[in-house]
Predict the structure.
Amino acid sequence: MEIKNFKKAAKRILKAIRNREKIILYGDTDLDGVASVIILKETIKNLGGEITTIYFPDREIEGYGITKKGLNELKKFTSALLITLDLGIGNFKEVKLAKKMGFEVIIIDHHEILDGLPEAEIIIDPKQKGDKYPFKGLATAGIVFKFSETLLKEKMTENLRKNFLELTALATLADMMPKENENLEFINLGLKSLKNSWRPGIRAFFEMKTFKSCAFDNEDIEWMASKIISLLNVRDVEHSLPASFRLLSSFSLEESEKIIEKLIEKSKTRREKIKAMVAEMEKRLQPTHHPLTHSPSLLKKESPIIFEGDSDWEFTLISSVASIICHKYQKPTFIFKILEKESSGTVRTPKGVDSVALMKKCKRYLITYGGHSSASGFRIKNENLEKFKKCLIKNL
């Protein structure tokens, strides 16, 4: 059984390659999005096609998903085939705008379906209505890997397959997808070939002193994969391209080693910043003394959710902080960066709480929202923050 719209999307992309149409890849900046972009880019290249340009939205400035800023920057390439990867399923207004600008939109995503689907020409998401594919737990990279098999057919060589599986394994682990079914196969096969990777951006990790002493049994490989993922998650943008993309698509071992050295230094700073943000959150969540009674007010501790924001927080750090706080307090945790007129936030929830379903009940206050049941995000006008918080508590 095949994921819905695979054949339809393959037919359209093959037509675009034949006719030398402009093809744009628009991917999320996390490792799942980046790996998906690289797999599809290299698949199209192996079919004789060219990618006109690649776009990753800057989460610090634009937030998550298809953005108006991103579309305006890409407008000069219309008309073109715009393929979104690991985002787009919740961008109803933005897809309409893209079509108005002259783009033909294909969405490849794995996030939860909201109220209906955007008006894209083709949508690939195993969670959409009418998709009978039995396993719904694939990362976007897993979907794109399977899609690349549909596109390439006999041109999917064993080396190319191993190459793509390495990226798929890292993306699946990074996105914390369930280690079962096809994901387990992707992880086992992908990690197995990691040490002998053709990709300089992966080989460079194995030149590091930290890893040279490893015996590379199953435990060592999983440990190393977690270290690689941790470094690839460090924010470092150059020429609008995240470090993970620059590294994993690099053809030079020397260049790859330089990028890794830079990420290691940034990683140290990142850990300190996360530690400071967690300390700030802990301080905010402590009981405060009521000015009249001089007794501790337990309002924050008694609240069923954690809902905190700040204009000074870095957006790329709040997901890690939310995970730490949610794990400790076992409460739905909403942390957001406050911008001039809007706020961009991340959500982490304990087992048994569906963050997307919860936000859906309060969608009237949101600009966009979406993600997974336990990890998601949102954008909201600042004037609606308090209303959104009250609605969440009411519907929990």
The chain has a mean pLDDT of 92.
